[in-house]
Amino acid sequence: MSTTQDFNIRIIGERINPGFKSTKALFDNQDIAGIQTLAVKQAEAGAAYLNVNIGARALTEPQWMATVIRAIQDVVTVPLSFDFPSRKVQEICLQSYDAAKAGGQIPIVNSITEHRWDLMDLYGRFRFKVILMASERVEDGVAKANKTAEEIYATARRCALRLRKDYGMPADDIFIDMSVSAIIADTERLNRGTVDAIKLIGQDPELKGVHMMGGLSNVGQQLPPKAADGSDLKHCLENAFLTLTVPCGFDTVLGTPWRGYAPLPEDHYVLRTYRNFLEQSGSNALRAVRKFYRA
């Protein structure tokens, strides 16, 4: 497992994604060498996996996607994570992947949900790990968003146990995505729901060994770059979230490997303000957000 200083967490490198302007330019120019350089940079920075997402182009140019996968595996030995909701696309990804080039390590399918379970039809023909989205459930045949800790926990538990019992998937192959949300307009205590759900999952003996993860870049979206104490607000928010959740079992970050994560001291301004924010709802939550950047 790759770790970052002071935190026993692994990083799934997120940069091979057209959501990053520099990466989109590589895709637009079909710059294979540039994509390979980006893959190597993430691996050398400690990524345990590399997430691969080429956007909508995967549906229209599947062979380009296969070329990207093979090119990445020519230069790195870390396993890959395939970030597409389509079964057709995932099948091509899995066919293109060479486990031998990753030291026998299997890839990750990112991601399945309770209403998008058809991706598991590929299990058996291929062996893979999964990222399971706990943010959505199926109720009366309809997909619904989970907002409370109890809803998130119940969905995660139901789906993880289904993977273990119906497919024989080892707990170590299951990553539960806790869907960390932005705090900027969180008047419904969604962040608090996520933090509390992590505690519930971590305490469940039947879920021992499964991993909890999330992309942390959302948490500070649309906030100013600096907190009231002058620190990097967005990065400190990510570390504040981890400070509260890593001890409860949150152990994987979809992020930029060289960003660096470390626990914040109890008296850190952003950690104290984040704790206060988690206790608020409605307009009080909005006022609590302002305290991050208003002394």
Structural notes for this entry:
By secondary structure, the chain is of the alpha/beta class. The chain has one domain (10-290): Dihydropteroate synthase-like (TIM Barrel), CATH 3.20.20.20. Helices cover 38% and strands 16% of the residues. The chain contains ten helices and ten strands. It has helices at 21-28, 32-44, 57-60, 62-73, 87-96, 149-167, 190-203, 233-245, 269-278, 282-290, and strands spanning 10-16, 49-52, 80-83, 108-112, 129-133, 136-139, 142-145, 174-177, 211-215, 250-255. The strands form two sheets. The chain has an eight-stranded parallel beta barrel with strand order 1-2-3-4-5-8-9-10. Strands 6-7 form a two-stranded antiparallel ribbon. Helix 8 (233-245) links the parallel strand 9 and strand 10. Helix 4 (62-73) runs parallel beside helix 5 (87-96), helix 6 (149-167) crosses helix 7 and helix 9 (269-278) runs antiparallel to helix 10 (282-290). The longest helix has 19 residues, at 149-167. The radius of gyration is 19 Å and the shape is globular. The model has no long low-confidence stretch (mean pLDDT 94).
